[in-house]
Design goal:
The complex is a heterodimer of chains A (254) and B (157).
Chain A (H helix, E strand, L loop, with lengths): L1 H35 L1 H11 L4 H23 L8 H39 L2 H7 L4 H39 L4 H11 L2 H27 L5 H30 L1
Helix pairs in contact in A: 1-2, 1-6, 2-6, 3-4, 3-6, 4-6, 4-7, 4-8, 4-9, 6-8, 8-9
Chain B lengths: L1 H27 L11 E8 L10 E4 L2 E12 L4 E9 L10 E6 L6 E6 L12 E2 L1 E3 L4 H18 L1
Parallel strand pairs in B: 1-7, 2-6, 5-8
Antiparallel strand pairs in B: 1-4, 2-3, 3-4, 5-6
Classes of the chains: A mainly alpha (254), B alpha/beta (157).
């Protein structure tokens, strides 16, 4: 019993350290990949970013619309429904944009990454590359990691923008908030620092989500069950890490 | 070949859309009605209390933004706040005896400087000081006065 606990803690620390080393390895290969295999990175930006646009746009629109509805109904108790633009913009730019994008990204792109890499491992494609003197980290893992890191801030920005349009559509034509005060109040309360906070968050989440996805795939047990488990772990771990990071970055920024 | 072109096109569109969204966020949601003028002149005004006025707050006349606050300092000898403002050089016919007051946009809005035209034949120019000023109304002070008065009424009975 005591030994089990000891073993669990030991394994946790070891895995954590291995993840850091894996991250360093990816960073070490990054300059070479960027200079020699830029095309692969582009392809992965397309896979992780452009193909995730549909879910990001739809979810962003409805999150913004709900913010508009909720903000309006609650602010109208204080006769402050004109501030709904400010409320929606701050919530989207600082919190909901980066966080929900990261969670959706983990579900849409992270799972694809880890199952793809895991399946490559299970079908011995990674070993085959090594036999042909192709470094699988450089050929497979790093481009996918970088693609995710590039895509995430752009996706978060699209999410926030579409969310604002959703809030606008609900508040202005539907609920009758004055269009001038909607945007005026927003512009008075949102500052460039708020947008920077959102960008910093989305970059951090992009690194965390992509790293966890390729890590889980690369270390998957090479069986059908193992790949499935790795995919599940990717989503669960990303959600946990993103929300913890979100708290830490917000605490630092305030 | 067709495949890679689709990927490149899709990536390009995605990157453009993302940057466009960032541009939209930085330009459309921030800053307020940003006042920009090529040439400005600087005027100052002294207030007993500036409330929560901040640099970059608008200076408005008849509801139109004609300038912005560039600096707020405290004068330790006169014990007053000195507010420096840049006004668009196009508006060079503002009477010298105009008065400045610190107003609030709406009940909970941000504060700005409002100018009210005077009747002088001389105009404000670079380095002028507005002499007639009215401080910001601080809500807490109003409530405080109200409470003190209410309290004293009760005790006098």
């Amino acid at each position: 019993m005591f030994r089990d606990l000891y073993y669990t803690v030991f394994e946790f620390v070891r895995t954590f350290g291995a993840l850091q080393l894996f991250f360093l390895r990816l960073l070490m290969h990054t300059p070479t990949v960027l200079s020699r295999r830029f095309g692969l990175v582009i392809g992965q930006v397309y896979n992780a970013g452009a193909l995730s646009l549909v879910i990001i746009v739809i979810c962003g629109f409805f999150v913004g619309a709900v913010l508009g509805l909720q903000g309006f109904s609650n602010l109208s108790r204080f006769n402050a429904e004109d501030s709904v633009g400010a409320v929606a913009a701050l919530a989207l730019v600082k919190e909901l944009g980066p966080v929900i994008t990261a969670l959706l990204f983990a579900g849409r792109a992270g799972t694809a990454l880890s199952s793809e890499i895991g399946l490559m491992k299970a079908t011995d494609q990674l070993s085959a590359m090594e036999m042909m003197a192709v470094n699988p980290i450089r050929r497979v893992v790093v481009p996918r990691f970088l693609g995710g890191v590039v895509a995430m801030p752009l996706l978060a920005a699209v999410f926030s923008m579409v969310g604002l349009l959703g809030a606008h559509l609900v508040c202005v034509p539907l609920l009758g908030v004055d269009v001038g005060s909607f945007w005026q109040q927003m512009q008075q309360s949102v500052e460039v620092a708020d947008i920077n906070e959102g960008i910093i968050k989305s970059i951090a989440f992009g690194i965390a989500a992509s790293l966890l996805a390729v890590w889980e795939g690369y270390n998957a047990i090479p069986t059908a069950e193992g790949v499935g488990r790795a995919t599940t772990r990717t989503v669960v771990l990303t959600a946990i890490v993103v929300l913890i990071f979100d708290f830490m970055i917000t605490a630092v920024a305030i | 070949m067709q495949q890679t072109r689709t990927v490149e096109l899709g990536t390009g569109l995605f990157a453009l859309l993302g940057m466009g969204a960032l541009f939209f966020l930085t330009t459309q949601t921030t800053g307020g009605e940003d006042f920009s003028a090529d040439e400005t002149f600087e005027i100052t005004a002294r207030f007993d209390n500036v409330g929560s006025l901040r640099p970059r707050a608008p200076v408005s006349m008849s509801g139109v933004t004609i300038g912005r606050v560039t600096g707020i300092e405290f004068d330790p000898t006169a014990l007053e706040a000195i507010v420096t403002m840049d006004v668009d050089a196009r508006y060079d016919q503002i009477p010298e005896d105009s008065d400045a007051s610190i107003l609030t946009a709406g009940l909970l809005g941000s504060q700005y400087v409002g100018l009210q035209a005077g009747g002088s034949e001389f105009y404000l120019e670079n380095g002028s000081e507005i002499l007639l000023t009215q401080s910001a109304i601080v809500l807490e002070n109003l409530i405080g006065k109200f409470l003190v008065r209410g309290g004293s009424d009760e005790t006098s009975d």
